[in-house]
Write a structure and sequence with these properties.
Elements lengths: L3 H11 L8 H74 L7 H11 L10 H9 L8 H12 L1
């Protein structure tokens, strides 16, 4: 059951005449709403930019690790190719000599070593991940992107 005070209060709030608002008030509200949405958009873009920079840095660190691994593996591969070249020279000398029948076991052994070649396999995990995820766009340095593009064409 409502008291008298509550009824009077209810009547006074419901019977208030509505205040007429001018177009300037609506324009002000629109501008405030537009400004709030625009600031939210700017904040989101800034956050995405920071995230993209962090991801780019992580990819570059990973790419550097791949390059270090490739450099070490390539040095080892070049060393083995030089050794293989020496073996080929020795093999050719033995095969072209008049006494090649005496070197039968050695020729067989060296020939097996020469043709037992392992190919150089480069580390392309980071590049493949960049390419497959569509994150090549994150790389800001144009020279890196251009070098990758030219390398891909070869």
């Amino acid at each position: 059951m409502m008291g008298k005070n509550e009824e009077v209060e209810k009547e006074s709030t419901s019977n208030k005449p509505k205040e007429k608002r001018g177009w300037a008030s609506y324009l002000k509200e629109f501008f405030m709403l537009f400004l709030a949405i625009f600031c939210g958009f700017l904040a989101e873009n800034y956050r995405e930019s920071l995230s993209a920079q962090k991801i780019e840095k992580e990819y570059m660190v990973s790419l550097m690790e791949d390059l270090k691994t490739d450099t070490t593996n390539l040095k080892s591969y070049i060393s083995s190719m030089k050794e293989r070249s020496k073996i080929m020279d020795s093999l050719a000398l033995m095969m072209l000599s008049d006494e090649r029948n005496q070197f039968g076991n050695q020729i067989y052994f060296l020939a097996r070593q020469v043709f037992n070649e392992e190919p150089f396999i480069y580390s392309d995990g980071t590049i493949q991940q960049l390419k497959n995820a569509g994150n090549l766009r994150l790389i800001k340095k144009e020279t890196l992107s251009m070098n990758y593009s030219s390398m891909k064409r070869k």
